[in-house]
Amino acid sequence: MLIANWIAKQLYKREQQLYKSIDQLNAAEIQKQKYIVGVIHEIETPIAAIQSYLDLVLQKFVGPLNEKVEEKLERAKIRTDEAIRLTNNILKISRMKLQDEIVKEEIDIKQVVDSLVSNVEELARQKDILITVDDHRSRFKNFTGDKFLIEIAFSNLIGNAVKYVDSYGSIVISIDDDDKGILLKICDNGIGIPQKDKDKIFTQFYRASNIPTNSFEGVGLGLSVVKEVVDKHNGTIGVESPSSLGSAERAGTCFIIFLPY
Q1: Domain segments of the chain as ranges
Q2: Per the confidence metrics, is the pTM higher than 0.70?
Q3: The pLDDT of residue 213
């Protein structure tokens, strides 16, 4: 009886320690996200200033520009626009983590996909990558969810496909539906994902072992954010590699997302 009481007390004590540790971790996560929001605000200010100066020069308020200089400045403007979008995305993701809520609205998945494909068309053209969007839906029912978060998730997957596919490669995005929800597949014939990495790719800061670090930028946060967005919409995400587009030389990858209505 004494031993049983002692064990019960020890278990209770451990349980309380566990609850305390969880509370401390949650508090640390909140502080981290608040810190990120503050830092990103500070970073955004000088980028916005650069953007304003570029606008002034490109609108020729400071004088005429020759064709080569104007072309370079246009590229710099595109990059600063991307930087502003990136910082805004990080801010919204941090706020999502802080508030733990999503905005519900009707979303046309095909419209979202078409818009995101148009954003990467120039890079795909430079690499001679063929991007195909196949809409196999029969119901054409709009999905209800947070459009911004869905765009973040799909943009990451489509951007990764373009990044890791070689010149003259292929990307196929297919949309299907049934009574329960929408099925999206993003398949490519890029470098693929090794079998040993498949269970880890949705972990924060994890990058597949076959990615040359000196060739592709990234810190391994993208897919963990994608997984979090899909989870918040009560959906599922899986990965297949080799993909249906793969070959012996380039295995390819296929991400499969199901989003319930």
Answers
A1: 2-99, 105-260
A2: no
A3: 47
Closest CA to 250 of 149, 133, 153, 168: 168
Domain 105-260 has CATH 1.10.8.60: no
DSSP string, 72-135: HHHHHHHHHHHHHHHHHHHHHHHHHHHHT----EEE-HHHHHHHHHHHHHHHHHHTT-EEEEEE
Paired sense of beta strands 105-107 and 130-135, if any: unpaired
What percent of the chain stands above pLDDT 90?
Answer: 22
Is residue 135 pLDDT above 90, yes or no?
A: yes
The two three-digit tokens of residue 103, written as one number: 């905005």
| Architecture of the structural domain at 2-99 | Orthogonal Bundle (1.10)
On average, the pLDDT of the chain sits at 79
